[in-house]
Amino acid sequence: KGIHAPSMDAWSTAAALAAVTHKLELMVAVRPTFHQPAILAKQAANIDQISNGRLALNVVSSWWSDEARRYGVQFDQHDDRYARTSEWLDVVQGVWRESTFR
């Protein structure tokens, strides 16, 4: 962890693994602070389809304010982050469940 730790992009890595594995469950951590919900819903659905239903999401309400600052993202206080996550999940699930979500 930290700014000097190596990290790969989880979404392209999960897509690559989905295409070349058959049994491996793919779990990607996602922080609503860093992802627009409708776009994330589309990305996750695509990888889930490629993997035949093996994608799982680990939704994390963020915890490291310095990381958000480095990416130019607003970092809210604890209760506000969790409220945002709840709303974010409503949008993601709405996009998945409804043909037209507003």
Strand content: 5-15%
Spans where pLDDT lies below 50 across 5 or more residues = none
| Helix-strand makeup class | mainly alpha
Radius of gyration: 15 Å
Residue-averaged pLDDT, rounded?
Answer: 92
Strands of the widest sheet, in order across it, are 1-2
Shape assignment: flat
Order of helices and strands: HEHEHH
Describe, in short, the structure shown.
The chain has 102 residues and is mainly alpha-helical. Helices cover 50% and strands 10% of the residues. It has four helices and two strands.
List the helices and strands and how they pair.
Elements: H1 10-20, E1 26-30, H2 37-50, E2 55-59, H3 65-70, H4 78-97
Parallel strand pairs: 1-2
Please describe what this structure looks like.
The model has no long low-confidence stretch (mean pLDDT 92). Strands 1-2 form a two-stranded parallel ribbon. The chain is built from 4 helices and 2 strands, in the order αβαβαα. The radius of gyration is 15 Å and the shape is flat. By secondary structure, it is mainly α.
Which properties best describe this structure?
mainly alpha, 4 helices, flat
